[in-house]
Design a protein that fits this description.
This protein has seven helices and five strands. The chain is an alpha/beta fold. It has a single domain, classed as 5'-nuclease (Rossmann fold). α1 crosses α2, α1 crosses α4 and α5 crosses α6. The two termini are about 20 Å apart.
Length: about 140
């Protein structure tokens, strides 16, 4: 089953983190990924922040970017469209989300043609995961 991937779940695929094993297992079970249009930018931002904060060595960030670029060549992206924007605006009125998270969830909703039942949403952000579950997605990894 193809799954929608939030940035919070992609970063542990590129670096070693506590959640790395669980998200890698999800990817190994189904290597098809769907993401929103700006996911790669969000990932680059997270990796750059780690480098600036010296939480991650320069070589580790370089390696993480290499993995990210390989993933990006394989995934499918939901384009930035008016439908995504309108859905995100609605989601902001219903859930306690940041703008980028609303755009993530809106992209997933558009991808499922507004029927998220039976579709996976891979996410490690608690607030976004809760909103995705309330919208009807199967949130992974299971807590």
């Amino acid at each position: 089953m193809v799954k929608f991937w939030d940035t919070s779940a992609i970063i542990p695929l590129t670096t070693q983190e506590p959640a790395t094993a669980s998200v890698r297992a999800i990817l190994e079970a189904d290597a098809e990924m769907v993401v929103w249009w700006a996911t790669r930018v969000e990932c680059q931002s997270a990796l750059g922040r780690r480098l600036r904060e010296s939480a991650t060595a320069k070589t580790a960030v370089r390696d993480a970017r290499r993995v990210l670029n390989a993933l990006a060549k394989q995934w499918s992206e939901v384009a930035a469209t008016e439908a995504v924007r309108k859905r995100a605006e609605r989601l902001l009125g219903v859930h306690s989300l940041r703008a980028a998270d609303a755009l993530q969830l809106a992209s997933a909703m558009v991808w499922t043609r507004e029927d998220p039942s039976g579709h996976g949403f891979v996410c490690l952000d608690d607030r976004l995961a809760e909103a995705a579950q309330k919208e009807g997605f199967l949130v992974l990894p299971s807590s």
